[in-house]
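[audit] Reproducing an earlier prediction to check determinism. Same input, same settings, fresh worker. If the tokens differ from the archived copy the diff job will pick it up downstream; this log only records the rerun itself.
[audit] input (405 residues):
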Amino acid sequence: MDFNDTPQEAEYRNRARAWIAEATRAYEGLAEPKSQDEYVARQKSWQKKKYEAGYAGLTWPKAFGGQGLGPMNAIIFGQEEGRSAAPTGLYSIGLGMCIPTVFTHGTKEVIERFVPKALDGSEVWCQLFSEPVAGSDLAGIRTKAVRDGDDWIITGQKVWTTFAHLSDYGIIVTRTDPAAPKHKGLTMFIVDMHAPGVEARPLRQMSGSADFNEVFFDGVRVPDAWRLGAVGDGWKAALTTLMNERLAVGGKPQSAPGWRTLMDLARGIDTGQGPAIERMDVRGRIADSYIADEGVKLTQMRALSALSQGKAPGPEQSIAKVVVARTMQDMAAFALDLAEGEGFAAGAKDGDLGRLQGAYMWSAGLRIAGGTDEILRNIIAERVLGLPGDLRPDKDTPFNEIVPL
């Protein structure tokens, strides 16, 4: 493995870094957005800048408006963008997961209608997969779509849909044949999030933000022309989305706190008998965090090395995701115990304690997003370790004969 940039990658990194430094000057020092509209406007302005400069859709085919570059270009740009003041996040699901599914399974007309406006930031997208009854079993969804002439009528509920309340369109998995086994009776569509019958209700999180939603569909009409893939092939389309999702969420966010943050915090806390960092149990927990961080970093490096050699992403991202999510939660909980005398400064954005408190509040969600720990452990067990597959007694049973537990 060679973790250093090639000469070509170094040249691209320097070029991207210079452009980002100049383009993000307008965002440096800005306070947090005061309203939802201000947040969206700031995100759209950044996406528009990237699009006009040729830094959007880096790995997408040129035929779809992309740049036709390799995955290392996207990774390098993302690394440099993550170190800047660029307002990112709103488009991560739409451009990272939804639109690649659209141009993989959509018709020429659908691609021409939707992809350009997503790429330049004009339209925001969400991913409508999870449901209350299905849990982690995507194939167990119950939102149904029934054919009515040239349209389909969708009825049901989704949940944990990130940015649904800010989105213009979404990709939705529906059940179109309840008599077929659960993986074979699904169909995916594009749905207009402003259509009659769609209601997105933001879920207030303990951090005070409301990024997730429960979304209700009450007789929502979708044209058959907006179907992604064949009727009954929704599982195949969903796998395209999931493959992109696990690649996107598998690593550790650059803004997330790590072992250095915990070490700095421990240096500043006085236990009455000296700084907390002098306690053996504290030093042991810092060492545990260091080992986990380094393991994830090296695992990601191995994945990046494979990508740079033109290989397909392997199961490494599943390993990294399981480790990152659990480590973040454990480290943040320990930091809060360590700083109990400091109180809980809800809303704190700055400082080591504020970062760790923020991590505590969102790290539980990270263990669900992009596949739960249990789902990812199954992947690792079966595809990496070669262990026997999990029991799936309902795999070939007609869905309408399955009784929910």
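[audit] rerun output stored. Observation attached for the diff report: The mean pLDDT is 88.
[audit] end
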